[in-house]
Amino acid sequence: MLQNRILLFFGICFFMMVSCDSNSVFDRYKSVPNVWHKDTVVNFKVNPPDSTIAYNLFVNLRNTNAYKYNNIFLIVEMIFPHGKTIKDTLEYRMAEPSGKLLGEGYTDIKENKLWYKENVIFSETGEYTVNIQHAMRENGKVNGVVELEGITDIGFRIENPTIK
After folding, report:
1. Chain mean pLDDT for the chain
2. Closest Cα to residue 113, out of 32, 158, 58, 31?
3. Which has the closest alpha carbon to 126: 56, 51, 42?
């Protein structure tokens, strides 16, 4: 009985430490089945809570050792509630020159928190859509990588930098 209470206590403490993230306003992931096809667009629907605060935006990626590139190219598109669209092609480093994968994590899955935009004010009320798609190409090849291996989850995160 005492052993069960001790385990419960430590379980609750662990859950609270892991789940406490006070500056996160939006943080969602979507899984990729086996490979990320070049035509697969991962989208997130967002209703920002406050139109007077400047937020920081991130693309989050989880990858395994099967990811064989030292960088990644992403096309990120933000569609505003009234139809305006901003589309960016972004490059992020995913590995050191030695080949060691970057990111957080103690297992073979690494999590990368990648800057997308800083000090963004969501001035329009309503639902925003963020679309994320990979745009990988191998050196010397014209056609893109059709099936990107090693990416397991794609995420989008909004943080309020004023909350600590």
Report:
1. 86
2. 58
3. 51
